[in-house]
Amino acid sequence: MPARQALEIPFVHAVEKCFAEHLHGDLGWWRDRCHKGMTCFRRLGFPTQRQESWKYTSLASVLRQPLATGGSPIPYPGPLPWVDGLDAHVGVFVDGRLDKSRSSLASLPPGVLVTDLHRAGFSRACNLGTLANSTRHPFVALNTAFLTGGAFVLIDANVFLDKPIHVMHLATSNRGRLAQPRTLVHAFRESRASVIESVHLESAGPSLINAVSEYQLENLTHVSRYELQDPAAHVSCVSSLDVTPGYSSRFENHCFTFGGDVVRNNVRVLQIRMDSETVLNGLFMARNRSHVDNHTLVHHAVPDGFSSENYRGILDDHATGVFNGKVLVAPDAQKTNAYQTNKSIVLSDTARMFAKPELEIYADDVKCSHGATTGQLSEDALFYLRTRGLTIKDARTLLLQAFAGEITGEVPHAALREALNQRVTASLQG
Amino acid sequence: MNTDTQYLHEVAAGDYEHGWVTEVASDTIPKGLSEDVIRLISSKKQDPDWMLERRLRALRHWQTLHDKEKHPSWAHLQIPAIDFQSISYYSAPGKKAKYQSLDEVDPEVLRTFERLGIPLKEQERLAGVAVDAVIDSVSVATSFKEELAERGIIFCSFSEAIEEHPELVRKYMGSVVPHTDNFYAALNAAVFSDGSFCYIPPGVRCPMELSTYFRINQAGTGQFERTLIVADKGSYVSYLEGCTAPMRDEHQLHAAVVEIIAHEDAEVKYSTIQNWYPGDANGKGGVLNFVTKRGICQGTRSKISWTQLETGSAITWKYPSVILKGDDSKGEFYSVAFTKGRQQADTGTKMLHLGRNTSSTIISKGISAGRSNNSYRGLVRIGRKAHNARNFSQCDSMLLGNRCGAHTFPYLETSNPTAQVEHEATTSKVGEDQMFYCNQRGISEQDAIKLIVTGFCQEILGKLPMEFAVEARKLLAIELEGSVG
């Protein structure tokens, strides 16, 4: 594909140039990892639509933008207005470095550490890059190549955190228009915590956020993650999450997408310990020319696993939604229960939805199912509400709020749930 | 190992019933594929020039694909490397490429079909099924032609259609599956040797089931037949297809193309019982079944329905599809795919909604036993202009044994807000509670599994025409005996 190569070459050149500059910096103990990441990225290159997992998502609009390194620095971004003031332990990371003056971590209980990756030390952060696989995923490789810092969260054994930890990445981007935040969370035995992750970048021109998160859960832990994505319309976002839950542990991921140009979320959960549970929920609301692609893989490698997925999307204007959920049950993973649902509402004539819920099963004593629906609002429900005196607009909003509420309602933190509901309403009215 | 799994293992080890060979002198051309081979096949079939040209065009396209190594490799299958130069692309039993009457046919060939239970002689007609019997590259006989002709129905071998109804063949052949469609469609368009042709004139309801029976006999050959069904305005036809092959150590290639055109208010029901030789328990030999089947609902209110029972073949790669072009048209796909031993199946459908108020139903049941892998792969695409399109898909998989795999790969692409697309899939095994219930009532484990599996597929088996439904149930029971435990 010569056209595609022509598109990619300037971008890759820019990446190479950045990489050369980047290596002059103080790299500490992970220099090897950066090199490995870059080697992998050079080998993999950017994915194309000829690859099955990128079939519906084109990166052309992302690659077409110059990855300028010079020019005026991007102004300092503020936090997302709708999550500002949330009752949480906030760790603000500016270009991968913890900014203590903006963070509020004073009330963190003992046993919980929120710090820079490079200050965490090798012994603590040795799992960095072991969960997220650079050899197979080009965006993980790219992120790893430019690893200058990131957030490190450690929850010690037997610690129960009531308030969520909010890892807020701010990109001022002196590295051009490519922000690459990184997060590593390690929850020890019998701990319980919630982590909110958000990335904030303000830029006048098109930009790309390439975020990578790794969650390692030891036995009997319960960790919930909330990813809040609300980038501006010209900002694209690729987010990768890799999780390995421990024995008898539970991991929940709640992903909310409200904007962006091309948004791609990769969630990969590898269940290699028995009796673990995974819940993946997602809500995406896309309008204008936004393209939101949610890709999930739950790999049940051992028996007695459980996973449940529920993704919902509302698509308006020229937006495109993609859901590709895969459940893989390995030959020995007997007694696995895996459920998957994807429901989408298409509001305009020009919006499109692509769903690909996959099951790949090699064990016989399992219960697996998936369901996918795409449609519009029920005429009957709209009629019912109109007979009760609601305007058509209010009736639609109410029904869509209820539709989205199935996902936001799963958030146990009242303040966050309320903030999300308000964001949903604002999005519906905007 | 409990008796339940023991029985499942026995089922997985069942024998193939139609594995014998007909000893008959045959006219088989040398192995290999080139323009000369195409010209040779064409001259044997006494093709008109336009057909030869089409073949050569297809061959050139295929060669470019082959040179670029563009074999379809996306399916969830492990396909052995195929040497296309080591296959003979034409083989005729006896010395003739065309038969005028049954008297000319080698009695050995007739006995073959007798043994397969295919009634060729009209006095032996059973339930009023007209049959076109194809062995290797040649159509042997077509029954009930005169009776059908009285109503204006054309039912004959493809070679005959090229000769007698060239205008119809030229118009419709390749209109649904062009030679550029895919690798195996290109190969078929180049080397196809025979097949069936059927035309139902306007307003005619075909009084009997039409059927084609395909048999591969010669070693070292492949079968590349083409079926073309044209249902004119307001007509109806139900079409059946069956196939078997002898047991051979090497893989044999079967790359067929089926095209269906349904005009306004027409309805075509196409049923297949696919029972090609599946290879032995270690996966040696067996037919590679790479088939392109597609129908187009050209006119308003037309309907195409595919029903298939897939039990044979070492590898099945087959996606009977419907293009729903006419407004208010309907597409249906009902499938049971049973794999055992080391069989692999990647099968499903494509429903392409283009017209308004189109609807499609997909019901697929996959049963895997032994060390087999069974995948459902289906595409539902709702085009921008397909207002009020409706789709319902359901694919259920059942696993008999813990060394097999059952997979589902549905693709749902919706570009119209008024569309309603629903998909659901489940995977399960024979429930212990179901087994317990049956045992408690004195039903043996073996019978209970048969009962449960048949019940699992009942929805589909019920859609088959009566003659086929009986055979299908028997076939499924035989397959199970060889493989369930």
Task: List unreliable stretches of 5+ residues of chain B.
Answer: 122-127
Question: What would you call the structural class of chain A?
Answer: alpha/beta
Distance, first to last CA of chain A: 39 Å
- Percent strand of chain B equals 35-45%
The biggest beta sheet of chain B is recorded as: 11 strands, mixed
Biggest sheet overview of chain A: 10 strands, mixed
* Unreliable parts of chain A: none
What is the alpha-carbon Rg of chain A in Å? 21 Å
List the total number of helices of chain B. Answer: 11
* Strand/helix succession of chain A: HHHEEEHHHEEEEEEEEEEEEEEEEEHHH
**Overall form of chain A:** globular
Using DSSP, what is the number of strands of chain B? Answer: 23
Tell me the overall shape of chain B: globular
In round numbers, the mean pLDDT of chain A is 87
Radius of gyration of chain B equals: 22 Å
How many separate helices of chain A? 9
**Helix/strand structural class of chain B:** alpha/beta
Strand order of the largest sheet of chain A: 2-1-5-8-10-12-14-16-18-20
Provide a descriptive summary of the structure in words:
The complex is a heterodimer of chains A (430) and B (485). Chain A is globular. Helix content of chain A is 23%, strand content 37%. The longest helix of chain B has 19 residues. Chain B is globular and about 65 Å long. About 1% of the residues of chain B have low confidence. At the A-B interface, β19 and β20 of A face β21, β22 and β23 of B. β19 of chain A pairs antiparallel with β22 of chain B, so a sheet runs across the interface.
Keywords:
A: 10-stranded mixed beta sheet; 10-stranded mixed beta sheet; 9 helices; 23% helix; globular; B: alpha/beta; 11-stranded mixed beta sheet; 23 strands
Short structural summary:
Chain A is an alpha/beta fold and 430 residues long. Chain A has helices at residues 2-22, 31-44, 60-63, 117-120, 122-125, 138-145, 379-387, 392-408, 414-429, and strands at residues 89-94, 97-98, 112-116, 151-155, 165-171, 178-179, 182-187, 192-201, 207-217, 222-229, 235-244, 250-257, 262-271, 277-286, 291-300, 306-315, 320-329, 337-346, 352-361, 367-375. In chain A, helix 2 (31-44) runs antiparallel to helix 6, helix 7 (379-387) packs across helix 8 (392-408) and helix 8 runs antiparallel to helix 9 (414-429).
